[in-house]
Amino acid sequence: MKVLLINPSVRNKTQHPLFKSMVVTSPPLGLGYIAAYLKRQHKWIDLKIIDEVVVFLSNEMLESEIIKAQGPVIVGISCLTATFSRAKELAGKIKAKRKDAVVVFGGVHVTAMPEESLATGFVDIVVRHEGEITMSEICEAVLKKSAIDDIKGISYLKNGEYHQTLNRQPISLDILPKFPYELFEENIKSYFDLGLVVTSRGCPFDCIFCLNRLVTGRVYRAFNADTVIDQIDTLVNKYGQRNILFADDNIVSDKKRFFKLLDTIIERGFHKKAFFLAQLRADEITEDVLEAMKKANFKMISCGIETASQRLLDFINKSESIEEMKKGVRLAHSKGFLTGATFIYGLPSETKDDRRLSAKLSRELPLDSARFNIATPYPGTRLNEIARSENRLTISHEWKNFNVQYYMFGDDIPYVPASVGRFTLMFDTMWANLRFYLRFKILLTTFFKADITGGGVISRQNKRNFFVLCWKAVQIAFLIMARFVYLRVMSLAEKFKK
To answer: Which residues contact residue 135 at a Cβ distance below 8 angstroms, ignoring those fewer than 6 apart?
Structure first.
């Protein structure tokens, strides 16, 4: 059996190619774990992953992978909202070239909207939620030509009618093998951001804008500590990674486990060969946590502040206070960590003063990096439900506008609260980003400590060539300048009309 797993690219209409070339190029975690599980469970599978972030899948490549394959062919395609358009296009090409191929969609977007995928006519099965066990059972069913009705966590059409099986409960991560970095060796030179590890799944919190809980659930589960350490060993000693990002939603949810992990990093000497970055909730940033992270050579901590308005923070169900966030960032800075934060503009009922407070807070706190994004009501989130109930949801053709940075490229952003104009919101977001970064200290940090401060944004492929980074920065600066002037003019016109 041939199994082809594809991570589709984001369309140029959703994200400018120049911006795409600057952002991180990390292996797709979800497909990687599915591939590792399938290879362990089914030795007879001929499996390949194609990640369009680094290798665009041409028609010739597609033909060579599926037409010449002997026996059954299964093509699994991972779908974010921003990549659904490309996923649909690929599914159509696959069916045109080989009708008997079984096309399976999975991922966060189709978990929220399985019927949309099946309605394309190109998709045979939709996998909802986590996909490792489900894909394994699909492979067995296809090989044996048996029914799929009893496979949990799938949606499909039967005689033209929609069918959905029971949800699969969140899996125990102990059953999963370690992440298969070796499957991405073919493009190792493109993966300058190979240093990515996840030690847990699930987040017990319930923010209204969050997508991750759709797939991973709200039940916190951790990978076996030995598996995590083996992965770090592979990254450090086999692939020579010198900066490693922990991509957990909530890495300190189990503090005892986290401390043990840090102790093992030190015992194995990894802290002398690499430095680490992590994303934490601000209320998790405490003296003992910082002390342990410092010893293990963690350099930067990022957190989601989202807004400086406690009213809005409560509305989005963040379960934190502004004071906790201020305290956490300042404490991390005082202990020698670089700090980063994300903010969201365009939340329901947000006012001009709310946005000003957030922009002001970003400059008052000792932050080394910050991102201001526009609230995007992705399918399956409560923010999406709110936008629909307000009749203020805009969905462009095949979801091309569903990206938090889309305001940099297009005007039809998916959600604008009634309290602000469309162009005013986009201008304020851009202005907040510019005011943060157009400061001498921040510019120096961004360029000369980009390995750390850009850990979750700027691709290390660019960081390793300073002159290429500078040239791309100049080109992007011109794009930003043009967009900034346009939004300023349109926002003033918007105010004049009122």
So the answer is: 34, 37, 38, 76, 104, 106, 127
Task: Measure the CA–CA gap between 114 and 167, rounded to whole angstroms.
Answer: 13
Domains of the chain: 2-164 (3.40.50.280), 192-494 (3.80.30.20)
For residue 461, what pLDDT is reported? Answer: 52
Computed on alpha carbons and rounded to an integer, the radius of gyration of the chain in Å comes to 23
CB 349 within 8 A of CB 307: no
Q: Of all helices (H) and strands (E), which one includes residue 275?
A: strand 275-279
Judged against a pLDDT cut of 50, whether residue 490 lies above it is answered with yes
> CA-CA distances (angstroms) from residue 307 to 172, 303, 369, 381?
35, 12, 15, 18
* Residues 6+ positions from 314 with CB-CB distance below 8 Å: none
Helix (H) or strand (E) holding 162: strand 161-164
* CA dist., res. 224 & res. 152, Å (int): 25
Angle (deg, nearest 10), helices 466-497 and 440-448: 140
pLDDT, tens only, 2-18: 999 999 999 877 877 77
Amino acid at 400: K
Here the tokens at position 201 are: 């799944």
Give the three-class secondary structure for 276.
Answer: strand
How many CB atoms neighbour CB 345 within 10 A? 25
- Single-letter code of the amino acid located at 12: N
Concatenate the DSSP letters of all residues of 67-112 into one string. TS--S-EEEEEE--GGGHHHHHHHHHHHHHH-TT-EEEEESHHHHH
Any idea how long the chain is?
A: 498
Q: What is the pTM of this model?
A: 0.94
φ and ψ of 147, to 5 deg: -70, 150
